[in-house]
Amino acid sequence: MTYAKKAFLFLLCLVLVLMTATPAVTHAATTINDVPTNNGKYKAISWAVDNDLLALNSANNFLPNEQITDRELVVMFAKLDRNYALTYNDSVAYNFYSDFYLPFNGTYTTANRSKAVTRGQFARIYAAFKGLDLDEPQAVQYLYTNDISTGSTGKKTFADFNPSTKLTRGDIAEFLYRSVQNGNFAVLGLKRATAGRDNDKITLPPGFMGSNNAEFEEPKDNSNDFTGPEYVNNALQSIDVEKPDLIANDQDSTLITVSLKACNGDPIPDDKSYTFRVTSSYGAKIVDTSGEAVRNVQSDGSTVSAIVIAPKLTKSVRDTITFELINNTDPGMKCLVGEKLNAHVRYLPQPEMRIDYQVYDPANTDDENGNVTPPYVPYEKLPEFFTENIINVHWIDPEEKLFSIGQQTNVTNALGNVENIYLQYGGSDKKYPALGYENAILQFENYNISVWLFETIIQKRLKDSINDTIEIMYMISDDGRPIYRIQGIDDAIASQVENINPVGSIIQLMGYLPDEKQLTLEHYDSVMKIYAIFTNLSNYDRTVLLKYQGGKLLGQVEAYKKRVEALKESADAASRPSGKDRYTKVMVTLVRPGGEIITDYQGTVKIKFDGVEKTASFVTNTSDYLNNTGSPGTAVAYFDSVIYGKSKAEATLVNKIDPRYATILKDLKDKTITKEIFTNPYFSKNSCSLATEVAYVVDYSASMKASDQTNYRGKKMMEVINQIKAKNNIVIETNTKATVLGEGSTDNVLKKDLYKASKEKGATDIFAGIDLALSKFSNDSKTSKSIIVVSDGKTSKSKMTKVLNDAKNKGVKVYTVSMGKKSQVNDAILMQLATETGGTYYHANDNLQLHQVFQKIIDSILCKTSSSSCVNPENLFEEATVTLRKGNITMNARIDGNCSNVAKVNVRFPSLSGDVQFELNKRSDSVYMLTKTVQTMQDFKVNNEIEFVAYDKDGKIIATKTVTITD
User: Fold this and answer.
1) What is the pLDDT of residue 1?
2) Is residue 798 classed exposed, middle or buried when 0-12, 13-18 and 19+ CB atoms within 10 A define those classes?
3) In 3D, which of 510, 553, 542, 501 has the Cα closest to residue 529?
4) Other C-beta atoms lying within 10 Å of the C-beta of residue 517
């Protein structure tokens, strides 16, 4: 290159740099009609206008409250950035800043460029521009410390910044004006996508996240990420993400809970429920507590929640989970119609060593003792152009689980015109491929059937069809899944059973099954679905079925059930190792970042359970794993012991790590992974017997997702029913309304699914369930009567007075139980309900305590005794922590408030000169705290295990809990 060319390029670059230099502050050349000169933002707004960042309209109005779009923001950054020397085209600017990983929403999604930006998003973008990877709370504090913002009231808290409201023209003018005044405006950027890696560089001041207790402030990185117009803030109270960071493995999950009020700021009654559509911007799975995919969820009073499962990914991704109110008819919620309530989660790929377990004990035949993760059940794609009506089935492919369906419907063509055409999925038009049905809701009449039955009926009817098509009904369930319903009981059958639908359905469905001797495990689901219809027959319906063919079919249904259950038991027995009467089976699997199981790992792992350590090899693809211990990629160890309740298993890779995986598994080297194991305990033998009637009322409102995501309460309640063996059982599920799931003798009610199929949805009205239960008791004065209620207590109280009076008048004791975190429970209602009826209120922190609670209730009912609400002194400590922060060591204990015999709580530290105890200060009936400086404790071995000790008034130890110090 010649000297002249070099000189020319140098001058050109100099001109471009000067063009993008920090603009001087000048007064506006023209009058700004809608911003008076005495307005606090006038100077910043006039500067923004003069320097071509923001323009006035034709009437010389600035419109300071108008929202800023992502596109406008990126161009403003480019115009001020001293390191930017390109055209001010938004696409060019997005491309430029993508190299610096600035978290603009429109970088890769063009549709987002025209969307408004929130104040919190601006804070993160600005921090990244300055070279810091921060989450919203830390980014907001960064704005405060650099005098970019002072908050809306000067309090300078996270909430005071209003991070979830939209960024306005007035806001951005002020923020950028202050930034330019503070110094050089030039991009530094990041070296990789944002993930909050620099959060530790920003110290959040005491009370920043809203707490008044500076000593115990716990900063969150998942605060209210709502994006929507400012007026909606009356309705939105908070968005809580249980785990903001998930492992990107198609298994890790988090619960997201949105708290709301009515648009005028009034509380939403607990018996109100609304439907919300929940979507993921990255296509993550939204599921219910059973693991089935859903599109829609129902709120429970003031809260609406959803469970999100992280997808398999090999890169880190930030996802937006959106809640949107649909099908609303309530004027009080009108402000939320069309608005999106957004929460953010991150998916992070990382290597894993997964531990699963199974327990086998013939003395306690519980099929669910284990945690082998069940496969995710996806929802099938909806035929989006179809209306809920009759559709035609053209063909079905049982191998691929696909079928071709068609309907006369309206479709919008490429020109935007609506055409009425016959649209066939799986026909000649490749734009509409065949659809899946395996994970849809499949029905015969209005009864759920198996995939095998659905395929068999469709194939038979297609074969018999004259025009090669058959008709079925298409609908959409409340949670957004497709329902495909086969209709039509044969006339010959219907006429013999008085046209009773369930009886005719059983007879017709049994006709599709082979002879009993030809049944295989393939027919298990089909038989059990038919049996589910059978168990829900009324007494009259059973009489009609008994008359059909002399009762032959009635016996056949029972025989078929026994046959497939025996086949299943034989298959289970064949998979058990010989020579072991009972065992705990621990399985370890290695998973590469992104969720894929490593199936050819050459190496071993040490597995420890109940004090016994074993070394197991990972089974590879070339091993005869069917005759050994597991599936490809799994190391398995069998232990002779079974521990009921809580225990743990540990796994450590044995060096040397397989060199092929040394890099991707480096984070697992010399690392011990621990898995908590919970084996469902069984109840002790009844010490008393009593003729009794018991009603069971279990809350399945949407808010119970937070308390019990595995439906342990339903499973355990069925065990309670079997244990008490009441003369009369009344089994009720309650949410928005109360439903009787079964009543009568123990044998009869346990033949039904009861709570197995119950799912959380809708609002809460436990008094409706109790009122229904009271109406079902007999008038027999010789039998004792009790009701067991499991709920979080968040319920409508409209029937409370009536229910309490009725229960007292009838002599019915009510035992109430809550579970989960105490902060999620309205225990005042549950306590009053129990106290006024002569029952007892219990709170269970976890599944083990729920078992212990039910054991106490069983004994109280059968032995007619009263018991303390203190569940188990051994689990006295609900919380115990020792934290090191800012030179202070803080000891904090929360005990079960129902255990009233605690006189004091000490913390015992191991010291160089012997153990030392500190007595904690009592702050309330259940909270004990103490803070010491690090200097006063410098000779203590604070890295060792630290013990909390509770004493009674006589100085006797009631309970202990061992913890380690945390930062």
Assistant:
1) 43
2) middle
3) 510
4) 6
- pLDDT attached to residue 579: 66
Burial classification of residue 933, based on how many CB atoms lie within 10 Å of its CB (0-12 exposed, 13-18 middle, 19 or more buried): exposed
pLDDT at 632: 66
Report the distance separating Cα 455 and Cα 433, nearest Å: 19
> What's the one-letter identity of residue 503?
V
Q: Which of 604, 601, 595, 596 is nearest to 620 (CA)?
A: 601
Supply the DSSP string of 678-692, one letter for each residue: EE---PPPPS----E
Strand locations in 269-316 (E): 275-280, 285-287, 296-298, 303-309
Q: How far apart are the first and last CA of the chain?
A: 59
What's the pLDDT score for residue 371? 61
Give yes or no for a cis peptide into 201 (omega within 30° of 0).
Answer: no
Radius of gyration of the chain (CA): 33
> Which portions of the chain are predicted below pLDDT 50?
1-29, 211-231, 374-376, 621-630
Burial class (CB in 10 A: 0-12, 13-18, 19+), 284: buried
Task: Give the Cα separation of 817 and 823 in Å (integer).
Answer: 15
| DSSP per-residue letters across 604-672 | EEEEEETTEEEEEEPP-TTS-GGGTTSSTTEEEEEES---SEEEEEEEEEPSSPPGGGTTTTGGGTT-E
Predicted pLDDT at 575: 65
Q: Locate 418 and state its tokens.
A: 């609506």
**H or E element that contains 458:** helix 451-464
Beta strands in 46-198, from DSSP E residues, in sequence order:
none
CB-based contacts of 631: which residues, under 8 Å, 6+ apart? 619, 625
* CA-wise closest residue to 727 among 712, 707, 749: 749
Looking at residue 824, its pLDDT comes to: 77
pLDDT of residue 308: 94
Q: Give me the pLDDT at residue 150, please.
A: 87
Q: Report the pLDDT value the prediction gives residue 874, as an integer from 0 to 100.
A: 66
Q: Tell me, what's the pLDDT at 458? A: 96
**Model pLDDT, residue 188:** 85
Residue type, 536: N
